[in-house]
Amino acid sequence: MADNVETVRRLEDGWASGDYDAVRGILHPDFHPKGNHGPGAEMMPPGIDGLIEGHKMSLGAFPDRKQETLDCFGEGDRVMIRSRMTGTNKGGLPWFGIEANDRPVDVEYITIYRLENDKVVESWAQMDIALMMQQLGAGGGD
Amino acid sequence: MGLSREVMQRGTEEFYAAINTHDIDKILSRMDDSVVDHQLPPEMPNGKEGAGAFFSMMFAAVPDMKFEILDVIVSGNRVAIRSRTTGTQSGPFMEMPATGKPFDVEGIDIVNVNDGELVTEHWGIFDFAGMMMQVGLIPQP
């Protein structure tokens, strides 16, 4: 059995490089994401397809999108990973009412994954959307 | 050296119990004097002073604020906690007016503790956007 922390690191590397085959190879077909997977994620279809659609929309908004793993540890069937996403709003986030404005974003997100037999079956994520909206110049009480 | 799984679990539960009393001194007593908090807004001082100011602001905005631990992941002297926060925003929040409306959101925190069971470093993401949307301070997307 593979090490769960290594499996989750490979999953995040798959997202970072847009390698959807790698992502599909690690996520269980019945995978269920929960929590804040980024702006607009709740409008996506459920499961893996929705996450990939969300990732493509994120790439549309931030064509120079980069993500890096900052921290990762696990216990038993669960792994937490903290990541950073940076990019420039060149494509706009229409589902948030934000047009392309060349503003840079630099936000962190933390995800907890649950694995069964080397596959990710469940996840809970929190992205700092309040900060991202502030960086994009939208809402957040301005 | 290092704390046991049992001590980490108990310490985590005690820390959240202290938060739920809204007793700032009790909360700060669980932090090392050199604590570094990566979640604090940049305009706030860091360390215990900033943590105290942050909790004061939150408890004033949400006097019935309660945290519930949903998941605990321990690795050595490090712990990741997923929690649920409920409350009513009955006070001003970050210069925005009181709404009197309830919210129910989640957050994930990462905490390092020393062998004296004091918090030395903290990272966290709290769903402020979800909270502000649910109480109506910012529009739903």
Order of helices and strands of chain B: HHEHEEEEH
What is the rounded distance between the termini of chain B?
A: 49 Å
User: What low-confidence regions of chain A span 5 or more consecutive residues with pLDDT below 50?
Assistant: none
Number of strands of chain A: 5
What CATH calls the topology of chain A is: Nuclear Transport Factor 2, Chain: A
Low-confidence stretches of chain B: none
- CATH class membership of chain B: Alpha Beta
Largest interface: A-B, 31 and 27 residues
Q: Which CATH C-level class of chain A is it?
A: Alpha Beta
Please give the order of strands in the largest beta sheet of chain B: 1-5-4-3-2
Annotated CATH topology of chain B: Nuclear Transport Factor 2, Chain: A
Shape of chain A: globular
Give me the number of helical elements of chain B: 4
Radius of gyration of chain B: 15 Å
Itemize the secondary structure elements and their pairings.
The complex is a heterodimer of chains A (142) and B (141).
Chain A: H1 4-17, H2 20-26, E1 27-35, H3 47-61, E2 66-75, E3 78-88, E4 104-116, E5 119-127, H4 129-135
Parallel strand pairs in A: 1-5
Antiparallel strand pairs in A: 2-3, 3-4, 4-5
Chain B: H1 5-21, H2 24-28, E1 31-37, H3 47-61, E2 66-75, E3 78-89, E4 101-113, E5 119-126, H4 128-135
Parallel strand pairs in B: 1-5
Antiparallel strand pairs in B: 2-3, 3-4, 4-5
Describe the structure in your own words:
The complex is a heterodimer of chains A (142) and B (141). Chain A has helices at 4-17, 20-26, 47-61, 129-135, and strands at 27-35, 66-75, 78-88, 104-116, 119-127. Chain A is an alpha+beta fold. The termini of chain A are far apart. The model of chain A has no long low-confidence stretch (mean pLDDT 90). Chain B is built from 4 helices and 5 strands, in the order ααβαββββα. Chain B has a 5-stranded mixed sheet. Chain B has one domain (5-135): Nuclear Transport Factor 2, Chain: A. Chain B is α+β, with helices and mostly antiparallel strands. The chains are: A alpha+beta (142), B alpha+beta (141). The A-B interface holds A 35-36, 39-40, 71, 73-75, 78-80, 82, 95-97, 108-112, 124-130, 133, 139-141 and B 71, 73-75, 78, 80, 82, 94-96, 106-108, 110, 123-130, 132, 137-139, 141.
